[in-house]
Write a structure and sequence with these properties.
About 5% of the residues lie in helices and about 55% in strands. With about 120 residues, it is mainly beta. The chain has one domain. The radius of gyration is 14 Å and the shape is globular. The relative contact order is 0.24.
Length: about 120
């Protein structure tokens, strides 16, 4: 029964609590560790440490993913109020049955807003 339920789901949302090498800076930057290879809006990212920064535009944001000061991806996202302040940086991933993990949202520590790529 459990196996059938698992296979019946087209998308399994996994929230990975990510270790942060530093706290969020002015709520526009955070450092995270991605524990699995994943894709952000078509850009593949290997497991590893990343700096996520964003510039707010009202309810939207331009997000930049960097590794060792090299920009690897830039994407547009929504800033969505979740009503609860996150105490750790986290990423929500979609796991596809026959494909890679997809980054759905980023939850920066110290903020109650999530950076949402898919909803």
């Amino acid at each position: 029964m459990v196996k059938r339920s698992y296979l019946g789901l087209s998308v399994l949302v996994l929230a990975f609590i990510l270790s942060a090498s530093a706290p969020a800076f002015a709520n526009d930057k955070c450092n995270v560790t991605l524990h699995h290879d994943a894709v952000l809006l078509g850009t593949p990212l290997q497991a590893g440490n990343y700096t996520i920064s964003w510039e707010s535009h009202s309810a939207k944001a331009t997000v930049t993913v960097s590794k060792k000061k090299q920009v690897l991806a830039t994407a547009e996202a929504k800033l969505v109020e979740r009503g609860k302040e996150y105490n750790r940086n986290a990423i929500v991933l979609d796991m596809h049955k026959d494909g890679p993990f997809t980054i759905r949202e980023i939850r920066p520590a110290g903020s109650s807003q999530a950076i949402v790529f898919y909803e």
